Amino acid sequence: MANDAALRSSLIWLAAVIVVVGISTRSFKKMMATYVVGGLGIAGVLLPDWCYFNRDFSRWTSPVTVDERASHTASTRSGSKRFKIYPIRMTVYTTVYGFALYKWWIFVSN
């Protein structure tokens, strides 16, 4: 990960949410569930190799070539966004994280 600032701020926000859940529910299990769901959420959004995933979906089964890696490095330095919006990625993220958030909410609210 090239920029650790996003990871640091995400972990700080996660810690704040864990403290709020702990104070409001007084449950260590719910705090740990928040930690696990938040950690997986952060890992799924911030840590993947976007050079690999920013390719066409059909190319995900093949390794990233040196030329693709160099092209990605050059494009991120030129100011383009690191996270591009792709319909398949957004559908998968919405489904997986929506379900995880729903399950977490049900667990914490009971």
UniProtKB/TrEMBL annotation:
Q: Does the keyword Aminoacyl-tRNA synthetase apply?
A: no
| Superkingdom of source | Eukaryota
What membrane topology was assigned to this protein in its record? Multi-pass membrane protein
| Keyword annotations of the record | Endoplasmic reticulum, Membrane, Transmembrane, Transmembrane helix
Compartments, as annotated in UniProt:
Endoplasmic reticulum membrane
Segments crossing the lipid bilayer: 6-23, 86-107
Q: Where are the annotated coiled coils located?
A: none
- Provide the primary localization: endoplasmic reticulum
What are its GO cellular component terms?
Answer: signal peptidase complex
BP terms from Gene Ontology: anther wall tapetum development; signal peptide processing
Q: Does the keyword Repressor apply?
A: no
Q: Which InterPro entries match?
A: DTM1 (IPR039955), Spc1/SPCS1 (IPR009542)
Q: So what family is this one in?
A: Belongs to the SPCS1 family.
Stated name of the protein: Signal peptidase complex-like protein DTM1
Q: Which organism is it from?
A: Castanea mollissima (Chinese chestnut)
